Amino acid sequence: MKLPYGVVLMGGRSTRMGTDKSMIQIDNRYLYEIAIEKLLPFCAHIRLSINENQSNLNYTFPTIIDKYENTGPIGGILSCLENDISPMLLLAPDLVNMSVDTIKDLIGIHQKNNQSCSMYYDSDQQIYEPMLSIWEKSTLLQLQTFYKNDGRSLQKFLNTINAPRHPFYTTEEFVNINTAQEKEAWLQKR
Fold first, then answer.
1. 94-122 b/e with 16+ CB inside 10 Å = b?
2. What is the tens place of the pLDDT at every residue in 41-97?
3. Cα separation of 167 and 10, whole Å?
4. How many Cβ atoms are within 10 Å of 58's Cβ, its own excluded?
5. DSSP 43
6. DSSP result, 59-91
7. Residues 114, 158, 137, 111: what is their CA dihedral angle, to the nearest 10 degrees?
8. What does pTM read for this prediction?
9. pLDDT digits (tens, 9 = 90+) for 172-185
């Protein structure tokens, strides 16, 4: 059974990269297109969560413009949930090592445990890994309240609601590309 929505969360400012990370090309494909390919087997509909500056580009999938500018991933997640994009499987395009098997496992965990949000947790770093996550509409009110009280850290929000902590098998899949140097290092290793 497919989830209703897959969302590529690509509205970040990409300040460390110096250019829009989602538009970086690898093997003649943009990172956001690679993320779409990973989501398609599991989702009935795909949406692209973008910022206002990205809205002038022509995308092949519908977009949701982040109405909470410069607030990090919380703004994109809020914008999607407020547009009834739920439940949604969210993936950041810069998680270039993410496997389809890990995505499939997270969906299984979410469906088995009937949770309002699901993601993996890095117990060594003591952080959630929300750039691959599943969000239900039931988290919207809590997230809005957190935001209205000047909450911008997704990690703090997840700790506040005591989100489940699902361990993962390898940290390699959660390595993201934030700088041109990290991109070059990743390309040399593959």
1. bbbbbeeebbeebbebbeeeebbbbbbbe
2. 999 999 999 988 888 878 889 999 999 888 889 999 999 999 999 999 999 998 989
3. 25
4. 4
5. E
6. -SS-EEE-SSTTSTHHHHHHHHHHTT--SEEEE
7. -20
8. 0.92
9. 888 877 666 776 66
